[in-house]
Design brief:
Layout: E1 3-9, H1 15-33, E2 36-41, H2 46-52, H3 58-65, E3 69-72, H4 79-89, E4 94-100, E5 113-119, E6 129-132, E7 136-139, H5 145-161, E8 167-172, H6 180-192, E9 199-204, H7 205-214, E10 221-224, H8 226-237, E11 247-251, E12 256-260, H9 277-293, H10 297-316, H11 329-339
Parallel strand pairs: 1-2, 1-3, 3-12, 5-10, 8-9, 8-10
Antiparallel strand pairs: 4-5, 4-11, 6-7, 11-12
Helix pairs in contact: 1-9, 1-10, 1-11, 5-6, 7-8, 9-10, 10-11
The chain binds adenosine-5'-triphosphate (ATP).
Adenosine-5'-triphosphate (ATP) binds at residues 14, 79, 242-244, 262-265, 267-268, 274-275, 278, 322.
């Protein structure tokens, strides 16, 4: 049995609750399918900054570097010093956010099955902000051909591999940001020509935000630059039962980090009502990735089982208040673990 070393970051706010819940589910899946994940603590975030003076300490970085992958809970105010940095350090250029309507979840339409493929390393997230004089501030938006090309390719490969509508929609605001989004739009259209089996269209971001509410089942793969993908995926998560239903993966060519798409939700931290599905399905994505990268069928089987057990638990009604039930974060995770 292959042993995988996984750097585990609990994060802040609801992060520790979600992490404990997810470990219960992972334990059940590992036992049943003969997978061995060795979790190594790699802490970062607000609490770590307070305790050590650094949001992302050097030893945390070393632990992550020596791991097969990282599983991460949400961090709070220090997100820009933790996750935005990790994406750059490990060149995790694609942020994959699947949003699927699961049976028995409060969804806007039962046919929603979309996936955001969001560029993860540039745009306004480069942190190039300046003050000029007293009252003028400037933020630089960086868009490069190299990153447009690799995110567009990732979007088309994703559309080809998944069991969806075989369609990519590129989202931009090229009528206003003619140079930066002009390049993004142009490169997406060029890459589309290499994938004649995949339908392609593009949309302005304002129109896309409206269309997501009006006809969400129309979308398959949404290819976006960094900021629009961040905003639109939060919006779309509400269509499938809220941010607690939304897992995510940050994937590069050599490493990957898995985390819910939401923040650390300080308003509900410690109340034991957070929906753990976002992190449980992020762990499922981790198993899928390990399975593909290392050709390990046991990981793939464990991933399939986690998703099936989640659906079974949604049907059973043992769910958190967000989903219409009265279960706690822990008891919902226990129900998913025993369904495995
Ligand atoms: P960030 O900018 O770091 O993504 P945010 O400001 O968008 O954070 P979140 O922490 O993501 O804020 O929370 C937004 C809302 O969604 C809050 O009301 C929060 O309670 C809710 N929320 C987030 N995650 C969950 C979850 N797993 N279960 C239930 N509610 C959640």
């Amino acid at each position: 049995m292959t042993e995988y070393k996984i750097a585990l970051m609990q994060g802040d706010g609801i992060g520790p609750e979600l992490t404990a819940a997810t470990l219960k589910v992972l334990d059940a899946a590992q036992k049943k399918y003969g997978v061995k994940l060795t979790m190594v603590p790699a802490e970062a975030g607000d609490a770590v900054l307070k305790a050590s003076g650094q949001a992302l300490p050097a030893d945390t970085l070393e632990t992550i570097k020596s791991s097969h992958a990282c599983l991460k809970g949400p961090v709070g105010e220090t997100a820009a010093d933790v996750i935005v940095k990790l994406r750059l350090i490990f060149d995790l250029y694609s942020n994959i956010r699947p949003l699927k309507a699961y049976p028995h979840a409060p969804v806007a339409s039962p046919n929603i099955d979309m996936i955001f493929v969001r560029e993860n390393t540039e745009d306004v997230y480069k942190g190039q902000e300046f003050t000029i004089g007293n009252d003028t501030t400037v933020c630089l938006r960086v868009i490069t051909r190299q990153n447009c090309e690799r995110i567009a390719k990732k979007a088309f490969e994703t559309a080809r591999l998944r069991n969806g509508k075989k369609k990519v929609t590129a989202i931009h605001k090229a009528n206003v940001m003619r140079v930066t989004d002009g390049l993004f739009k142009k490169v997406c259209a060029e890459v589309a020509k290499q994938y004649p089996d995949i339908a392609y269209n593009d949309m302005y971001v304002d129109s896309a935000s409206m269309h997501l509410i009006r006809k969400p089942e129309d979308f398959d793969v949404l290819c976006t630059c960094n900021m629009f993908g961040d905003i639109l995926s939060d919006e779309a998560a509400q269509l499938i039962g809220g941010l607690g239903m939304a897992p995510g993966a940050n994937i590069g060519d050599n490493f990957a980090l898995f985390e819910p798409i939401h923040g650390c939700a300080p308003d509900i931290a410690g109340k034991h009502i957070a929906n753990p599905i976002s992190m449980i399905l992020s762990a499922k994505m981790l198993l899928d990735w390990l399975g593909e990268r290392y050709g390990d069928q046991n990981c793939i089987k464990a991933a399939v089982a986690i998703e099936a057990a989640t659906i079974k638990t949604l049907a059973s009604g043992t769910v958190v208040p967000d989903l219409g039930g009265e279960a706690s974060t822990e008891s919902m995770a226990e129900a998913i673990a025993s369904a495995i």
